[in-house]
Design brief:
With 382 residues, this protein is of the alpha/beta class. It folds into three domains: 101 residues, Beta Barrel (Elongation Factor Tu (Ef-tu), domain 3), CATH 2.40.30; 105 residues, NADPH-cytochrome p450 Reductase, Chain A, domain 3; 144 residues, Nucleotide-binding domain of ferredoxin-NADP reductase (FNR) module (Rossmann fold). It is built from 15 helices and 15 strands. The protein is globular, with a radius of gyration of 24 Å. The protein binds flavin-adenine dinucleotide and NADP nicotinamide-adenine-dinucleotide phosphate (NAP). The site of flavin-adenine dinucleotide has 19 residues, from strand 6, strand 7, strand 8 and helix 8.
């Protein structure tokens, strides 16, 4: 019998669809990917995530080797490995080319033979303001540090010991296993930005968007199970708050309930920058509204007017109805940005419960605690 596929034994899947969801004239690049599970023995449920092991961009690997004055043929041993591999293999598949630490800046300082470089690095290391110190390094990748400090000689093995491991990335699954038992869909924001005057790219999102080969069994993946998921009882109403890529698991939820003929009402709050560019899966929501599976759809396009409108504004506008659903036993789900959105949605939920449930703020806190305990308030935020 073959060994089951998991994080330690990923399945070499084939990418079978790659389609841009956001319009090319928008400010964001959000794409849909389909990964075939055929022959893997893998199964999934709504709310699970897919782990993807990316590789670094060969252009970034070559640029690093040039700046480091290395060929890539050097033999290196990754800490805790037993057999050496070439530096090129290590920085293509195993190690991250971003995220240098001050341990590496110190090594660069110690090896610098140019007095001005050494002094500038010493100043950075001695920076007393922790925020400034952190911000300076956050703007830089290894290549920046090498190009700004060309006098230091560092060996391939020393680099190997200073790189972080290249980790798999998780993506919320946006398909339903009832509809697609042998396929997993992903909804990915492709990360591209600029720091220190250079164009940067997110390793895994651009691997999927730009470099992963279509229809070749060479995308290493695993299914990460989650506590996030639909209620077992198909009659229970669900409220889903998923702006941006946070909508991914809710496409899975609604597709699943539609495919299985589940009768419970479904209410989605979706938001993104602009309706004309970022209304992800618009036609599918329209179809599900027409067929009655999607009971309510409330939209918040933040940049279509002078004043920002967010999903929590739509929640507040519909506070009385939302409270009715919660009182009737609805499950409340939030997915997407953890830093700002999930906190603000949580605050709005507390306010709505206090106002429409006629509770003190303290009682609303306790009510939400009980919702969480009963697994009726679930979050998948990142
Ligand atoms: C449970 C879970 C589910 C997830 N689901 C999804 C999903 O459905 N869809 C989705 O798109 N993502 C999802 N993510 C996020 C995903 O795992 C990756 O983190 C994301 O795709 C970025 O990975 P990357 O390799 O492309 O970028 P990385 O190479 O990891 O780079 C990202 C880093 O770049 C830096 N950065 C990014 N933007 C900027 C900027 N503007 N300025 C300065 N620095 C910046 C930040 O340091 C950031 O941490 C999920 C995460 C988790 C934990
Ligand atoms: N490279 C880029 O240009 C770019 C652009 C956007 C996102 N990203 C990154 O891509 C990743 C995923 O993005 P995503 O598609 O999931 O979501 P997102 O683009 O971060 O946000 C989706 C929607 O949520 C809104 N939003 C912002 N702050 C909010 C808050 N406090 N409460 C509620 N809604 C809020 C956004 O509005 P506003 O943005 O108008 O405030 C937008 O309309 C994130 O890590 C993000 O940082 C990159």
């Amino acid at each position: 019998m073959s060994i089951p596929h998991d994080k330690n034994n990923p399945f070499a899947a084939a990418l079978v669809e790659r389609r841009r969801l956001s319009a090319p004239n928008g400010q964001k690049e959000t794409s849909h990917f389909s990964v075939s599970l055929k022959g893997s023995g893998l199964t999934y449920t709504c709310g699970d995530s897919l782990g993807v092991f990316p590789t670094n961009n060969p252009a970034a690997v070559n640029a690093f080797l040039k700046a480091a004055r290395l060929t890539g043929d050097e033999s290196v041993l990754i800490p805790k490995d037993t057999a050496p591999i070439t530096l090129r293999e290590a920085i293509t598949r195993r190690l991250a080319l971003n995220g240098p630490t001050y341990k590496f800046v110190q090594l660069l300082h110690d090896r610098a033979t140019n007095a001005a470089e050494k002094a500038a690095l010493a100043e950075r290391i001695a920076e007393a303001d922790p925020e400034k110190k952190k911000a300076w390094l956050a703007e830089r990748e290894f290549i920046d540090l090498l190009e700004e400090n060309p006098s230091a000689n560092i060996t391939a093995q020393e680099f190997t010991e200073n790189f972080r491991k290249l980790m798999p990335r998780l993506y919320s699954i946006s398909s339903s296993p009832a509809m697609y038992p042998d396929e997993i869909h992903l909804t990915v924001a492709v990360v591209r930005y600029e720091t220190n005057g250079r164009s940067r790219e997110g390793v895994c999102s651009t691997y999927l968007a730009d470099r992963a080969r279509m229809h070749q069994p060479d995308l290493p993946v695993f299914v990460a199970n989650s506590h996030f998921g639909l209620p077992a009882d198909d009659n229970i109403p669900v409220i889903m708050v998923g702006p941006g890529t946070g909508v991914a698991p809710f496409r899975s939820f609604v597709m699943d309930r539609a495919t299985r003929g589940a009768k419970g009402p479904n209410w989605l709050f979706f938001g993104d920058q602009r309706r004309s560019a970022d209304f992800l899966y618009e036609s599918e929501w329209n179809e599900w509204q027409k067929s009655g599976v999607l009971t309510r759809l409330d939209l918040a396009f933040s940049r279509d007017q002078a004043q920002k409108i967010y999903v929590q504004d739509r929640m507040r506008e519909n506070g009385a109805e939302l409270w009715k659903w919660i009182s009737a036993g609805a499950y409340f789900y939030v997915c997407g940005d953890a830093k700002r959105m999930a906190k603000d949605v949580d605050a709005a939920l507390h306010e709505i419960i206090a106002q429409h449930g006629g509770m003190t703020p303290e009682a609303a806190i306790e009510f939400v605690k009980q919702l969480k305990k009963a697994e009726r308030y679930q979050r998948d935020v990142y």
